[in-house]
Amino acid sequence: MSLFDTLTIQEYFQPPVISGSAVLREIFVAVRNDRPIGLSDIDFFGGGTENDPYDGSTHGRLDAVLSRFAIISGTSIRLGPGVFQTRGGGGNANPSVVWSIGSNVRIIGSGMFQTTLQLVEVKQLFNLVSGLPIVTSTVIIANVSASVDNVDISDLTLDCNGHRQGVFQCGRIIQPTVMVHGILLSGSNLCFRRVRVINWGTFSPRNGLECFPMAAGASPYNSSHPVFQNGLIEDCI
């Protein structure tokens, strides 16, 4: 099956998302200002529909929605206009991520200059290969031990926010954030369209650290998926 067919036809054969008593294929999220006082971040507010979107007005609220739905096959997550903050994932430095994306999932904004997904609260982690402390994070990632197929990211800005992450203690050395990425995914039929990545890069005097605004390919941490097929990066900046 071609990449086009995979991303436009195959989704209709995926299982639906169950939200309460409703069956949803599309999850809508907005920056809302009508949240009841006293409702915690882990409590969902809204129904996830176009007329009653989930509240994603803080990173805790958005990450709660993404951690629940972004791994469910067949889900399209539509983000409204505005700035959405997320703690993202740990990149290749940590197998434990705040949320990760699964196969057959779409994340769709309201426009490259209308919707921003901004990385916040990057943590000091340990590199799986070297075992050394390293500070890194990624806005959109799959679990490092997993491969994902048929993923579409489109119509939004990913703000890696690297210059605002502060400094971290690595042993006896205090250093700024090492590196922040936009997208790191391993698998086949990966499609990034009309995505802008800003404030990404390596923010450290350390040399030899690879950093990518977007990366799609085979994972060095997953030998069961050594190759990938069909990758599309289109109209991205």
Mean pLDDT: 78
Strand residues, percent: 35-45%
Low-confidence residue ranges: 6-13, 91-96, 126-131
Q: What is the number of helical segments per DSSP (H or I, 4+ residues)?
A: 2
User: Cα distance, first to last residue?
Assistant: 28 Å
Pattern of helices and strands: HEEEEHEEEEEEEEEEEEEE
User: How much helicity do the residues have?
Assistant: under 10%
Give the overall shape.
globular
Specify the structural class.
Answer: mainly beta
Task: Give the strand tally.
Answer: 18
Major sheet: 9 strands, parallel
Our Rg estimate from Cα atoms comes to: 17 Å
Q: How is the topology of this model organized?
A:
Layout: H1 3-8, E1 17-19, E2 22-24, E3 26-30, E4 54-55, H2 59-69, E5 76-79, E6 82-86, E7 105-108, E8 115-119, E9 124-126, E10 133-141, E11 151-159, E12 167-170, E13 173-176, E14 179-186, E15 190-198, E16 201-202, E17 214-217, E18 231-234
Parallel strand pairs: 3-4, 3-5, 5-7, 6-8, 7-11, 8-11, 10-14, 11-15, 14-17, 15-18
Antiparallel strand pairs: 1-2, 9-10, 12-13, 14-16
